[in-house]
Specification:
- This protein is an all-alpha fold.
- It has one domain.
- The chain contains seven helices and no strands.
Length: 179
Amino acid sequence: MAGFAAYLRVMATTKSDSLVAKGFLFRSRWKQKPDSRTFAIEAISILLMLLFGLTAIDKARQFERFYAELGKSPFLMAYQGWVAWGTPIVEGIVVFLLIFGGTLQLWGLYASVFLMSLFTGYIYLLLNYSYYTPCLCSAALESLTWEQHLVFNLLFLALAMAATASKERQRQTHKNNKP
């Protein structure tokens, strides 16, 4: 992890015109090393992009399995088609929003909080009120128990909420400092 943090620090201070230095990982408006709040927002955004991007790709690649498992869910079987198509599409849109800075990134963070709330609530309902718990996760999360998955989702929900609150404070500070 220390190597990754060092890589991010180097990328934040580089004057390169590369896609990574200018747009994807770090915003081109940074003329100097970012403050800790901005760095935290970016790091959490990257984690959310990885989470949603990988799960969207996995659901799209194994669409038939995902669709079949949705049909076994006691809470989602009536909405099987909508959820099967909508989930990877919405996750992809959230990744797209998180890539860009400013208002689009803020919308992506709000959408991340919303999605993580839905996913966490769904797992809670399955654990407490369902006779059957279908596995609808990506391959990376299938090895977790449902209790571990709930904790994982709560952690990512907390990260998304923290990044959203920080980004909103950052936006308000910037708005108040405008002439």
